[in-house]
Amino acid sequence: MDAPVRTALETAAQRYFEMSARGDVAALQQNSIASVAASFAEIEAAVKENQAAFTGAKATFRLPFLLTANGPEPLARAEFLCGVFGPSGQTKDSAVFVLNNLPPGHYGVTILDVNGSQDPRTLAFVLQQAGADWKLAGFYARASQASGHDAAWFTQRARDLKAKAQIHNAWLYYREAIALSAPVDFMSTLATDKLYDEAQAALPADVPANGSPLDMSAGGKAYHLTDIFPLAVGNDLDVVVKYQAADVSNTALTFQENTAVIKALVAKFPEFREAFAGVVARAVEPSGRDYGSLMAIKDIK
Length: 301
Fold this sequence. Notes:
Blueprint: H1 3-22, H2 25-30, H3 34-37, H4 41-54, E1 58-61, E2 65-69, E3 75-82, E4 85-86, E5 89-90, E6 95-102, E7 105-115, E8 121-130, E9 133-143, H5 151-163, H6 167-181, E10 187-188, H7 190-201, E11 214-218, E12 221-233, E13 236-244, H8 251-268, H9 272-275, E14 278-284, E15 290-296
Parallel strand pairs: 13-14
Antiparallel strand pairs: 1-7, 2-7, 3-6, 4-5, 6-10, 7-8, 8-9, 11-12, 12-13, 14-15
């Protein structure tokens, strides 16, 4: 991109980062595109959650990306291939962005690596050009570490677990490595592509994944598992399993069912005892309302 465009993107991103560090959500909302400003609660919550990590921290820019969506109507699936691609696909400086229902316009993606007194974070802004200004169109803050470890550590740990034939642990650790490698879910790079290929090669046949659920029996009842993934909480790494439930309003009963699911899951995959501190079961209603329970691995008998 032209140097003035890059300067304008970085100047706007620096200004929005400083607003975030001050917790000035009013100014951020005022400088957002209309659709974002009208529904700002999620960004406001993210700013408040990350403000302490941003205050007094040093932000370093990565190379920004410029995306142009042409046409009179929003694009149902807008895919952008940025940078130089080789015979095998992506290179170290390339990126692919996939955004759904993207209105026509000029967009910039700026990514900052933020290092301060707390754990390192990435902060990605999606900016949309409005005249001479670049308005805020997306705000994505993400930790660069989980349980005190970065993506490289989780990748190596996944490979070690795979070598020990702990394929379920390995696959979940690959998932954590992928999550830590990409600052936003709609971006892929050479690093994330390689990790995804490794993760798919390690994908067990008996887990809910890629939209395919898994039925499991627990306490004499069949449960429909819809997802399983790692979750960092402080210095611990837990594994979360979600399953379908008709109703979670009876929390005492749902707690019993969560407990049954947790025990059955660890009985099915005893290797979890080596790789995770706890297991969380979340019963999810058709409405999306859920109820979760956590058990420490040491307490699962």
